[in-house]
Write a structure and sequence with these properties.
paralog of FGE (formylglycine-generating enzyme), about 15% strand, alpha+beta, three-stranded antiparallel β-sheet, single chain, Four Helix Bundle (Hemerythrin (Met), subunit A)
Length: about 450
């Protein structure tokens, strides 16, 4: 969808499909384990799964039943329990949360009433209802929590609870290691994508000097070379903050990796396996990505460079929605939607490459950039400042492109993610860049 003026029936069908897809994933993630695993906190970094489940229902009630539908509150007494800003994740297990059966019933009852409202809502008149924005916002919110619940499943100890087919094998990528992105202006952000969130807006022109970018994300094999060369033990590759962090926490490899003789193993959703050399490296923090780039004689791309590489079409001199054009993501374009529970090998998805030949900019792994999370010129918070505005500043680094855990509704060429530079439990990797004038 490229035009916000789509007819109401098309928008209504899109909203129904995305909401239904999100709920199916939520149901799977919360039904594949027994009740003790739903109520336990598997890491202080994450909420109990049962909190996510009821929070999803509560946000849907607040925005779609109350704000859009004008309905009376169903469970106003639980609003505070499921306010993400009122209760840090580490404190949530101590709250009087709804038990699993009640949380499921609540979320289901909210959804039933929301579908009635969806049928009768005119997709115009207010900013919340224009082009079905509120429904798209809630579908994205649920899918974002599906991603965090998948992170919880990865952190969870115990036997495997989730399965999915692996990505198709591909021949070892033998294309160029980097691609020149020509300098010049391009349009960053969007003012027309109907369900874009506030931090993606407004569209604005940016001037970008020429630079080279990796054709694929950095692989496990490449990162192992960094480790073998003493990368974690050589202070000069690290920022002072990064060096202090890895020393303090005794970090010597990506999260979930451990050495077994001459090979590296990793734990992935309850299964221990050999680290695949040709997959993009996963579960590294910003400090690790930045140190690798320095070791390789390169750097992380800025957020602006990343978006130009992902959206600029030199032939048409315009910005597209995705690297491959304006069409919504399909399975041949990118590894999205948790249909696989691992990144695809580097060089996969040739049909999803950019006009310049850069691959896997969407899906597989979130990619750390060099940039702090800051507002665009003319930014306006909507519909609430806590979505983006309170996070702006140097404390958070920007990630781009989505991961295998991300649904297409919550991933596009303009989508911005952010996190602290120490975070490793997220599905994060990276690619590197260099300025065109560098040797």
């Amino acid at each position: 969808m490229t035009d916000p003026a789509f007819d109401a029936d098309t928008l209504r069908e899109r909203a129904l499909t995305t909401l239904t897809t999100a709920r199916a994933r939520t149901t799977l993630l919360t039904s594949c384990v027994e009740e003790p695993d739903l109520t336990a906190q598997h890491s202080p970094l994450m909420s109990p799964l049962v909190w996510d489940l009821a929070h999803i229902g509560n946000q849907e009630e607040m925005w779609l039943l109350r704000a859009v539908g004008g309905r009376e509150a169903m469970r106003p007494e639980i609003d505070g329990l499921y306010d993400a800003f009122e209760h840090p994740r580490a404190e949530r297990p101590s709250l009087p949360l709804l038990p699993p059966a009640e949380a499921r019933h609540y979320a289901s009852e909210v959804r039933g009433r929301v579908l009635d409202i969806l049928e009768s809502t005119a997709f115009h008149g207010t900013r919340l209802t224009e082009a079905g924005f509120a429904f798209g916002m809630i579908a994205q919110h649920e899918q974002q929590h599906d991603e965090t619940m998948l992170i919880t499943h990865q952190l969870r100890k115990g036997p495997q609870a989730l399965t999915a087919p692996d990505p198709d094998p591909v021949p070892l990528f033998t294309g160029p290691s980097e691609v020149l992105v020509p300098g010049g202006p391009f349009t960053m952000g969007t003012s027309t994508e109907p369900w874009a969130l506030d931090n993606e807006r407004p569209a604005h022109r940016r001037e970008v000097p020429a630079f080279y970018m990796d054709t694929t994300p950095v692989t496990n094999a490449a990162f192992q070379a960094f480790i073998a060369d003493g990368g974690y033990d050589t202070e000069r590759w690290w920022t002072p903050e990064g060096w202090a962090h890895i020393r303090q926490h005794s970090i010597h490899a990506p999260l979930y990796w451990h050495r077994d003789g001459k090979q590296w193993l990793r734990r992935r959703f309850g299964v221990t396996e050999v680290v695949p050399p040709d997959e993009p490296v996963l579960h590294v923090c910003w400090y690790e990505a930045d140190a690798y780039a320095r070791w390789a004689g390169r750097r992380l791309p800025t957020e602006t460079e990343w978006e130009k590489a992902a959206r600029h079409d030199p032939a048409g001199n315009r910005s597209t929605r995705y690297p491959w054009g304006d069409a919504d993501p399909a399975p041949e374009h990118a590894n999205l939607g948790q249909r696989h529970l691992r990144p695809a090998p580097a060089g996969s998805y040739p049909e999803g490459e950019s006009p310049l030949g850069i691959r896997q900019l969407i899906g597989d792994v979130w990619e750390w950039t060099a940039s702090d999370f800051l507002p665009y010129p003319g930014f306006q918070a909507f519909p609430y400042k806590e979505y983006s505005e309170v996070f702006f500043g140097p404390e958070h680094k920007v990630l781009r492109g989505g991961a295998f855990a991300v649904d297409p509704v919550a991933c596009r060429g303009t989508f911005r993610n952010w996190d602290y530079p120490i975070r490793r439990q997220i599905f994060s990797g990276f690619r590197t860049a260099r300025s065109a004038g560098d040797a």
